[in-house]
Design a protein that fits this description.
Structural class: alpha/beta
Largest sheet: 6 strands, mixed
Helix content: 25-40%
Amino acid sequence: MKRMIRMLLLALAAVAAACSPRERTLVLLSTNDMHAKIQNFPRLAAAVEACRDTAQLVVLVDAGDRWTGNAYVDMAATPGMPIIALMNELGYDVATLGNHEFDHGQAFLGRMLDSMDFEVVCANVVSDTCTFPKLPPYTVVDRGGFRIGFVGVVTNYEGPGHPAGNASSFEGLEFPDPQAMAVKYAAELRPKCDVLVLVSHMGDDRDAELLAKGPSQYDVVIGGHTHEQIDTLIGGTLLTQTGKDLKNIGVTTVRMKGRKVAGVDYRIVPLSAYEPDAAYQKRVDAYYADPELNRPVGHFGTAADKWGLANWMARAVADEADAEIGFYHIGGVRLDSIPAGGVSAAKIYGLEPFGTLVSEMTMTPADMRRMILSKYNDATNAKEAHRIDLISTTPYVIVTDAADNALDVRFPELREGRAYRIAVSDYVYRNYKDLNYTDGEITGDDVAGILLEELRDDSPLKADNKPRQQVVRRK
């Protein structure tokens, strides 16, 4: 009798095991901050297709900033279209907005959204205009019977109150707090899906801030904006980011047992490990076959590093404006270096892709000090704080306390109380806080054009890579 009972129990256990849900795996492939670097797209295509060949349940996601950063895309007949056409062909499923999606204005973005075959979601942009229709806050993608919810958010911290960029690009739009909207729509969407993903263009610092506030409804945060490589777990939620410029792809594996998430893992995979897909390479080569952009305009006699490029841009705007001092913000220097040799127009438009204009104003050293201190101590846009943000033709030293708060700025070559004519980018003029000046104006001179003219007229250019700004801690 005992033997029969034991056999019955074993049989029941076997039946229960057979009926229990087997484990299946979802794969979320992600990109962020591609910045139109289509030269790397053939390797991305090879990586995506390799994953699709081995995994059944794959979703392809982008976390914003798809254009601005490559002249072959940004100056195409329809700016930005080459990257969108490639994304459509590769079969992206969902994306959110980045701040650079607004670079060409709302009407342009509205038209571009119509060209995207993938769903674009953003929970914290409010629009009631026909030029830029309101986007859905979230979408649900079905893969193999699993419901995967995606909520999108974009930064509003740098404006403040809107994404980074010129305020004119955001007129008439509202950008509610992205963290509050992420929480709101997580509560609404969680009951409707098996896996919940936040596609965020807030930056890893803000993503971490959100997750640190308490238990999260999200299983994964696919992040962007700060160009970091992030793979961390906060409060049980996976926080990810791949870097920038399509150098990597993010691979998130979500193990499902029944309709429950049994585990989540993430890898950053370098795309350099993949041979370019031949068909995509042919399409990219066609975009790059532009003789006007490819032709060398001039050349550098020596290589320029990031400091050298920033010094060049600060000096160039000062020379153009006949100003005594030039400032250039480091965020507007979009290349890390230019080697010695021929320099094409495409390279210059990659260095300065925004159509930035020169601005002039008169400032005293006290005014300059206020501008620099405010930026260094910026509590709202923390990722751009506590660093040398404004490169200048005049040397200066930022003095900080032990907690890295800026206390003073010393100008060894300037005379206190004297008014100096200053040249800056129109981005600084329009957007930086605590600017105090007189006789300010935005000129019609564009920075890229100034740099091209210098290359044509003054080659070979010798790079000045010497830093003139430094930070010292007060003893």
